[in-house]
Amino acid sequence: MAAPAMAQTGTTQNPNRIDGYGAPVNPAVPTSRAAEETTIDIIGGYYQQTGSHGAVEGGRGTQQLTDVPPAIIVNVPLDTVSRLTANVGADFYASASTDRIDFALSTPSAHDVRYHGDFGYSREHKYNGTIWGVGAGVSKEYDYLSFNVAGSFAKTSKDGNRQLSLAGQVFLDQVTLITPYELRAGYVAGSASSRGEKNYGTDKRQTYNLTATYSQVLTKRLQAAVSTELVSQNGLLSTPFHRVYFRDNPDLNPAPALGSDFSTRFPTAARIENLPRSRFKYPVSLRLNFYATDLVQVRGFYRFYNDNFGVRAHTFEVELPVKVTQFFALYPFYRYHTQTAATYFAPFAQHSIADTYYTSDYDLAAFSANKIGLGLRYSPVYGITRFRVPGQDGQGRPRVMRLKSLDLRYANYQQTGSTIYTTADRADLKANIISFDLGFAL
C-alpha cells in the first residue's frame, strides 16, 4: 500500500542530505523512526570541485574548492502534538578562486568557515488534519551575515491521501563589500604589495520565498506532488569581488604582472560585477513516486525554472530505490539539468563598457549538467547498536540511545558548456560529493 501523501515530501528514505538533490519541502521525522522518539541525525561529507572559469578572475582561472559540512539535526517531541527542531552546523571550505581577490596565494580569504543554526516549532491538530510551524535561523561567515524567519501550514485530508502545504521564509542579509585589491581606493598601480584601503563598507539583501505544494495519492502504487516556489530578491545581488573584463575598455590594467600560479594579466582594467538589484524566480515542479514492486520504487522529478534575469532551465531527476534485503537498500540516481544564459552574462573579455549590467559568473552561463551516483541505506528494525546516555526515561530506567540507520552516498557532477561559446569559453566544472547520515533515536 502506498503511504499517505503527507509522507511524500522527500524523494528518498533519507531527507537530510548535503548534496542538493531531492531536498524535502518540509522537515519531517524519518519514516523509520517513531513519532514519539527524539531523533538525532549527524550528517557530513566531503565536496571537491575543479574548473577553469572562476568569476573572481573574470571568467577564467581556477574554480578549485573543497568543503566539509558537518551538521547535527535534532527533533524533539514536546508532547503528542508539538515538537522542536534544531539544525546546527558549519561549512569548512577552502577556495583557490577567492585567493585571487588579492592575487596572493594562501591569504585568509582562501579558507573560511560558515556557521549556521536553524530552530523551529511545529504543532499538529490531528482532528483537523493540520500542522503549522514557525522557525528562525542565522548564518555567519567572514563577509556575510544572514537572519531568517519562516512559517508553514499543511492541511491533510481525512483519509490521508491529499495534502496542501504552504510555507514562507524571509532572509535578511548583510554583505561586506570586499572588492578586488587593484580596484580599492589607495591602491598603488602595479604594486604587488599595496592592498589599498580595507574599509570595505556593507550592503543589504532581502529574499522572500513562498512555497505551495499539493500532494495526491493517485493509486495504490502511484503518488504525485505539484509545487511552486516564488522567490523575490532585492538589494545587492552581485558579488563585489567578482571581476569583469571588457573587450573595449581603454583603461590600462593597474594590477601587477604575476607568476605562473595566476592567469595571464589582461592588458585593460576590470570592473566589479554589476547586476540589477531585484530578481524574481518562479519555478514549477512535478514529483512522481511509483511503487513498481514491493522491492523496487521509481521516483521521478521534473522542474521548470524561469526568472527575470533571462535564465530558463529544465531539471530531470530519477531515483530507483531497490530493497536488497529487508534492512538494506540501494538507490542509484541520475539528474540532468540544462539552462540558458542570463541576459547579463558574457565570457571573459566579451562585455562592452557600454553594458549597464555585466557578469562573467558561470553560474549564470548557458550549460548542461549531469549528476550520477549511488546511495545505500542500512536500517535494521531494532537498530544497528545501542548504548546508555546520562539520565532516565519516564519509568525511571536508564536512557538508551540507538543508532537506527546509516546512509552513505556518492555523486559525480559534470558541467558541459553550450556550443554558443567557443571551446575555451565553455563551462567545465566537475565535482565529487561523498555524504553520510547517522540516524539516532532516543
First CA to last CA: what distance?
29 Å
* Order of helix and strand elements from N to C terminus: EEEEEEEEEEEEEEEEEEEEEE
In angstroms, what is the radius of gyration?
Answer: 24 Å
As a percent range, the share of helical residues equals under 10%
Q: Please tell me the overall pLDDT.
A: 87
State the secondary-structure class.
Answer: mainly beta
How would you sum up the global shape?
globular
Beta percentage is over 45%
Number of beta strands = 22
Oligomer: single chain
What can be said about the biggest beta sheet?
20 strands, antiparallel
- What are the segments in which pLDDT stays under 50 over at least 5 consecutive residues? 1-33
What count of helical segments does DSSP give?
0
Could you explain how this protein is built, in words?
The protein is an all-beta fold and 442 residues long. Helices cover 0% and strands 51% of the residues. The chain has no helices and 22 strands. The protein has a 20-stranded antiparallel β-sheet that branches. A two-stranded antiparallel ribbon has the order 11-12. It is globular, with a radius of gyration of 24 Å. The two termini are 29 Å apart. The model is unreliable at 1-33 (pLDDT under 50).
